[in-house]
Amino acid sequence: MEWFTLERLDQQTVAISEYGHWEKVRSFLxxxxxxxxxxxxxxxxxxxxxxVEGLTDLPIRVVLTHVHWDHIGGVGEFDNCNxxxxxxxxxxxxxxxxxxxxxxKELMRELSQPLxxxxxxSRFELFKGCPTGHLLDSMEIDLGGRKVxxxxxxxxxxxxxxxxxxxxxxxxxxxxxSSETPIYGNYPSTSPQDLVRSLEKLANLPGIQRIFGSxxxxxxxxxxxxxxxxxxxxxxxxxxxxxxxxxxxRAFRLLF
Length: 256
Ligand SMILES: [Zn+2]
Ligand SMILES: [Zn+2]
Known about the structure:
alpha/beta, Metallo-beta-lactamase, Chain A, 6-stranded mixed sheet, 5-stranded mixed sheet, 16 strands, binds zinc ion
């Protein structure tokens, strides 16, 4: 069985999922006429670059929703990577609670598929390095016949970004995914206030057609009105702060 599961959202868009690890993390390849965009790079188990190069000959631009270890695993395989300035320091210096040893442990936890034959966990190193470019709110990336807009959606991390393309495909990263696991707004480095504001920002985006999660099931079925109602509920009940626990909604849950 292949480590990466490929699911085509259309001719020009592929979801690259790692269902063999309990986090079920997912990266996305968006192809235009001139360039392809890789949103996140997965766990670092197996070569995501080989997968991507098997799908397209276009030059690859790598963008990171944020720099948690489960989204930057393959970033070292590429010659470029773009992040929001507020997550840059973590990419360069690491996140204090995560080092190579603790990430190796996480990677080997609750595996449901065999690892690729050429993957050796003892050689895994957590990526640290400088980004080659920045992602800023409202920035437009032109892939040729297809534009992708960057939306700064902090909360889960300070420099977290989401993406929406000209098809109305929304890629909200770890700001919104389906409810098998909660969206984490409970670490000291998170901000429940920012996360809720970001959900509200996503809810108010015009033209959303489909929403694709970076964890768990591929597509999230939640309306903008439902998102707005969740935001209102949390605020009215004074739940938008650390320590208020798990907040369950129909299509997703939040942990503060
Ligand atoms: Zn994350
Ligand atoms: Zn994640």
